[in-house]
Amino acid sequence: MEDRMRIKILTALIVFLSAAAAQNERSGEPDIQRRLEMIERNQAEAVKAELPTLMTNYQNHPGVLYLQAVLTTNGIEAAKLYQSIVDNFPRSEWADDALYKLYQYYYSIGLYKTGDQKLQQLKQEYPFSTYAVAEQVSEPVSPPREEAPADIKPTGTIEKFPTGFTVQVGAFSTLQNAEELKAKFEKENYSSNIFTIVNNGRKLHKVWVGEFQTYEDAKRFTAEIRRKFSLESIVVSR
Known about the structure:
By secondary structure, the chain is an alpha+beta fold.
């Protein structure tokens, strides 16, 4: 009975959100940012329900393509969508977001050279992007060699990042979502910090976990994060 009630409530919520979105967007642009914030708040299913209508009403819209890519669970297919935004809509507000997603994707699967190329393209073509400014502060690190993943324990409580490496586990436009992820790691006794960058009125809140003396230690820690939290992460230097 409780399951049926939950399904009814969820269905009603989806119908309400779809109707509200249709009313608000009938004569304007789709509110992509609002839906991205919904995804960050674990409301991805509601956004998925809206996606077919958005794709019909806004064909070849870069923001809708970006939303589709974010909701795509297959990494290869998502990368294709992000690349199509970069190639076909280079002047849209979502092009730099798509490039940053490509950079994160290639790093997460170990294609560091390709990831570096995407990051350099981001800096060259969108120098005032929030992502470009942020990565000038915390550069991703290409490893000297590949190693087989192994689990390690993170070091003690972090007061600051004076030197060495840390691991970025997320980047959010909403501070509350970054704080929730930070709290999730701290609940499991992992020390973490939030680094915020602001550019052109757009904020990006990065969640960093752990402090390591070497790249190899930090890289091994990403395997632990993947195993325990089902999150992809990247090593950054400080």
